[in-house]
Design brief:
The protein has 242 residues and is mainly β. The chain has 1 helix and 11 strands; from the N terminus they run αβββββββββββ. 40% of the residues are buried.
Length: 242
């Protein structure tokens, strides 16, 4: 691993240690990277923040700086030479502006990638992935409510783009759509009842760019940055192909 890759990895790890994580999931290159019958296993991380609308109980507002932590083990399989599928299992949590600092609970996801065109230097493709998460803790102030809070959410990301071989590393990126849905419940002891709200965010367009480095044979490291009008995220993916 050369000096530039080592510095990039160190800087990325420091960012993860200093902050919470994101509501956008790591995506990786938008093309299939496995031959038929091949497997890939590794770990995916993401960090950042976004704003999500919620409505219910006759009210409508925005959760500013909605953040979710994602630490996921992934397993991918080559269905064909140009088509792969993957699952993710791990842990995640959430934080929001207004005093909710949720615990870490089970999180999971799944997705697929396909290569549509290209050669050994430049390839074009698409991906689709869905992730689920849950977090619980007390809420200090949500529309004047305080009590035990629970957030369940899911995200859908659909992307199209390409990868370009830069000899020592690969550049990747493209455009994507991001959708968020879920539920927010606050059990307020003062009112003696639970207040329920729907989390909603319509499909928001965004863009992302990343770099893939070969650390050793069949071992890769991805670093990427995603951005939409309501969110940003930094992602890391470490994988072994066999």
């Amino acid at each position: 691993m050369n000096k530039n890759v080592s510095l990039l990895l160190a800087a990325s790890v420091m960012l993860f240690l200093q902050g919470s994580a994101a509501a956008l999931d790591y995506m990786g290159p938008p093309v299939a990277g496995l031959k038929k019958g091949q497997f890939r296993t590794g770990f995916d991380l993401s960090m950042g923040e976004m704003d999500v609308e919620f409505k219910g109980e006759g009210a409508k507002d925005t959760l500013n700086d909605f953040e979710s932590r994602r630490y996921l083990w992934s397993l991918g399989y080559g269905l064909r030479d140009n088509w792969e599928a993957f699952v993710r299992l791990g842990a995640g949590g959430a934080e929001t502006e207004g005093g909710f600092d949720g615990d870490t609970r089970f999180a999971y996801g799944l997705g697929t990638k396909v290569t549509l065109a290209g050669d050994n230097t430049l390839n074009w493709g698409a991906l689709l992935q869905v992730g689920w998460g849950k977090s619980e803790n007390s809420y200090d102030d949500l529309l004047g409510l305080s009590g035990d809070g629970e957030i369940d959410w899911y995200e859908i990301q659909a992307a199209a783009g390409g990868t370009y071989d830069m000899e020592d590393w690969r550049l990747y990126g493209g455009l994507f759509l991001h959708y968020v849905g879920g539920d927010l419940d606050v059990e307020d002891p003062f009112f003696g009842r639970t207040f329920s709200f729907d989390l909603t965010q319509e499909s928001v367009p965004g863009g992302y760019v990343g770099a893939r480095f070969d650390l050793r044979k069949n071992v890769t490291l991805d670093t990427e940055f995603q951005v939409t009008s309501d969110a940003w995220a930094l992602g890391l993916g470490l994988a072994y192909k066999f």
